[in-house]
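Hi D.,

Good news: the full-assembly prediction came through. Inputs first.
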Amino acid sequence: VTDPPPSSQPEYDLGHGATVGARMSSALKAGGIITPVITVLFAFFVGGLVVLVTGHNPIDTYKAIFDGTGLQWLFPWTSGDDRATAAINLQQTLIITGPLILLGLAVGYAFRAGLFNIGGQGQYIVGSIVAVWSGSSWVGMPHGIHVVLCMLLATMAGAAWAGIAGALRAITGANEVITTIMLNWIAIWLGVYLFSLGGPLQNSTQPDVPISNDVVPGAKLFVFWGDPELQGLHIGIFVALAAAVVYWVLLNRSTKGYEARAVGFNPEAARYSGIKVGKTYVLVMATCGALAGLAGSLDVLGWQFHLATNDIQGTQLAFLGIAVALLGRNTAIGTCLAALLFGAMVNGTSVRNLDPAVFEPELAQNLTTVIQGLVVLFVSADVLILLIYNKLRPRRRKAAEAGA
Amino acid sequence: MSAKRLGCGGVALGLLAFLITLPPFEVRSVAPSLIVCVIAIGLGAAAIGGGERRLGGGALAAALFGALGAYGASHSGVSHLEVVVSWSALTAAMLRYATPLTFAALGGLVSERSGVVNIALEGMMLMGAFFGAYGADKTGSWVGGILIGVLAGMALAAIHAVFAVSLRSDQIVVGTALNFLALGLTGYMYVDTYGANGTPDNLPSVPDINLPTDSLGFLGQALSQLNLLVWGSLLAVVLVWVIVFRTRLGLRLRAVGENPRAAETVGIGVFKVRYAAVITSGGLAALGGVFLSIGFVHSFSQNMTAGRGFIALAALIFGRWRPGGLLAATLLFGFSSALAQRLPEFSPQLATLFQALPYVLTLIAVAGVVGRSTPPAADGVPYTREGK
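Then the structure:
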């Protein structure tokens, strides 16, 4: 397995009509970890300006948000009560980080194949629905088997849902951006239909509440850190990390991953070299859907245990996956780190963790969305970043030109 | 008889089959409708045989829809039917629900015809919705609300233009970013300005236009009291059609969207046209948002557009990037919203599923089952000047 065929264009040139995959692969080569870090700092800086302009203190605000993330647990000098509180907060941060890693990978893998999967939300919802249905059925099943079965079914459901978009792209050429957006909304209304009053999966004991049945104890994920009654950290984070390893192997050490990257780099060249492009689109989308569906099952089996109609309408987690993938440059390790960042942001700005005297949580949650938008915006300007990078690293560029 | 006529007849008969079971006709048996449907299917099949595959397929779909609708209607209570199917109220509601979609879809049309994909319509609408309410509140007049709302949408669109046109960013990624940004920014400003109380009750609102058409049947009743911006949206459809398809300016716009290099060789400034188109698009989409907040709901709430920008995008694709087609699509989606709002009387679950209809229809449309919709050739492709 070698790298995809080299492009005829110079290394950092994003010329006319470059595909998403080509852009991404050249972006990957540029700047390593430096550019994402600059992107994040710049986004936080602009976010801080918004806070400042509206008459709050940005330093205090960011500090209060950081205190809520629990990341200070990692510092050796945090001790006593602070350490206990930080541990609880960090557990919550990591609970969000797990599914975010999977949702980021679900976007990232599509990017590498030149596809834009905005459908993480729909795939996540379909996975959640299947997980809550299977998790609340089959009461007597042995614990381990039940959990694995629920996750497997959710994964398959997500894969099938995304596979629709992949198949449409392969057969009719329908743009996956449009089809995945449409599938998101269909999934939302499907979920609302299933759990609303009188719906087929609505709670069987409480006819007045638009909510699903509870996941039975035998289908809940094992909590290994903290109190299971107080939403301790479940093993989902390891599932997500394992998925990141699988993602790395799949992308960099397998034929399927090579084909995906080749298609992303140049579909015509890939077709010419004998790769079945249509089949690759379907497989890539199904893999992405599987990851997002798995993310849905982690949340349902790990801490939600039931789904209400407003859970389904309100979930924004999958959209964070887009920011996570873009910031993590679609690499396994980058995605994990970006997921931790956004997981910490979401948890640090939650009502439970942010002191309203310093900064209103409701404001802070919107601030997270603003920063999320800014990160994606700055990442999108890869030309800008590459320009700066090329200016900063003239020697390496000249060397590349001399070699070519 | 030509295949085309057969197909049209089939579509009409399919719809007729449903219509006769609804007020004011209310046939209480499904049999007559089924007979009509069978004829419609026959006509559809004949049309397909005669080479009109799309129209014939449409006739088959209409016949199926008619049969299902007629079955549902003839098996439900007459009182329920009359509450759900009040034609004048339904038509008025359809126009109201369609208005924000029409404005936003027109915005999408102008932008995409110039070759810039705009999936930030949602965010631009949201900017219009918040700043429309904010402007109306601060200036004390709805005119100020419209002005400030539209300017806010154009400001967001200007960012889109800078990144998508000048910096050659991936247009989908920028659009996604702007949707987040608008959601966060409007939410932030809303909480910061109005807090838990919400927008004031005495928010100035865009006035309704009263017409003396009450005596002119259900259509007259429906049109007798509509918001100024509802009429504005219909006018905008005509204006956009004239400008984009009947003027020199429009020709340039379309040339840039189809083949920017060729356009540049005859002296059209590609960047200038694209900037203008994207910013106009933001203003139009924002107008849809303004209608939503100070013309329809009379308040603002966080994320109040709730995916309407994406339905507008769907309408644009469904209408094949043409003003007339787009209006037909927004009216269809508006009608399905109006019906969904009234259906709970009849069946709440059905009403919920009905909300998904626009998305399912669009999925079918982009999949090319009912003819393929093709975007402008250079849609979504960043333009680089020769030699740069």
